[in-house]
Amino acid sequence: MNDIASALLIVVGGAFMLLAGVGVVRMPDLFMRMQAATKAATLGAGCMLLAVAVHFGELTVVTRALLVTAFVFLTAPVAAHMIARAAYSVGTPLWEGTIADELRDRRQALGEEGDAP
Amino acid sequence: MTTFLWNLLLALAWTVSTGLFTVANLLVGLVLGYFILLFAQRALGPSAYFAKVPLVGRFALFYLGQLILANLRVAYDVLTPKHHMRPGVIAVPLEARTDAEITLLANLITLTPGSLSLDLSGDRRVLYVHAMYIDGGDVDAARRQIKEGLERRVLEVLR
């Protein structure tokens, strides 16, 4: 039972990781690449660590696996946010299919260049 | 908060007294402690803890559902040759005020596939979010979805 669960979690985690990798190649601009890379990879890492926890089932391993998961989930979005924010401030172009940019509108209204509104 | 610490303490007492140091046993202790405290409420005085626990549970379920749905949607777009995205940067006016509330909300938004918090306005009243799927080009609907879906629930749990 535990073997099946951990095997399933590893396969699902690996699939998410693969999806993140393919997403980085396929997405048209930096922001969507960040989206594809961070979330799917975070979820993939979470699944794998959960698989480790299920497989070993000992308190020392489980607590550490859960702790690592918690920290990955806590830090990955912050990193993604900082990279995307820096990219936006530098003026990385958005995909031509982008339908709205209210941050640019706001910055133009304020007459500021590059810095935070 | 103190009630939560009491609950933790009771769970630890349970694992120590049963002598079984496993995760499952600790969870049993937590559940037992929760009900003991629930019954002891009459003696100890009311606590917001008992209202919060179901709220946190419901929020976790809701968020997990959102996470899976959004992941599948992004996965579909990554794997099929055509791009179905309608991305945009939208301004979400915030009701969250404290640092903790804004940080948690921004983090949760970034963790959901298809939305990424980009920037916070200087007066901390507007969060700029890069959304991948603005259905039908309706920016206001996307804004409302974040405000009423995620923000309302986060504030419900925190306040």
Structure description:
The complex is a heterodimer of chains A (117) and B (159). By secondary structure, chain A is an all-alpha fold. Chain A has helices spanning 2-26, 30-56, 59-90, 102-110; one strand at residues 100-101. Chain A has one domain. Chain A is built from 4 helices and 1 strand. In chain A, helix 1 runs antiparallel to helix 2 (30-56) and helix 2 runs antiparallel to helix 3 (59-90). The model of chain A has no long low-confidence stretch (mean pLDDT 83). Chain B is mainly alpha-helical. Chain B folds into 2 domains: 2-47, no CATH class; 50-158, Alpha-Beta Plaits (2-Layer Sandwich). Chain B is built from 5 helices and 3 strands, in the order H-H-H-E-H-E-E-H. Chain B has helices at 2-18, 23-44, 49-79, 99-111, 139-158; strands at 88-93, 115-120, 126-131. A 3-stranded antiparallel sheet of chain B has the order 1-3-2. In chain B, helix 1 (2-18) crosses helix 2 and helix 3 runs antiparallel to helix 5. The interface between A and B is large, with 46 and 41 residues. Strand 1 of chain A pairs parallel with strand 1 of chain B, so a sheet runs across the interface.
Blueprint of the fold:
The complex is a heterodimer of chains A (about 120) and B (about 160).
Chain A: H1 2-26, H2 30-56, H3 59-90, E1 100-101, H4 102-110
Helix pairs in contact in A: 1-2, 2-3
Chain B: H1 2-18, H2 23-44, H3 49-79, E1 88-93, H4 99-111, E2 115-120, E3 126-131, H5 139-158
Antiparallel strand pairs in B: 1-3, 2-3
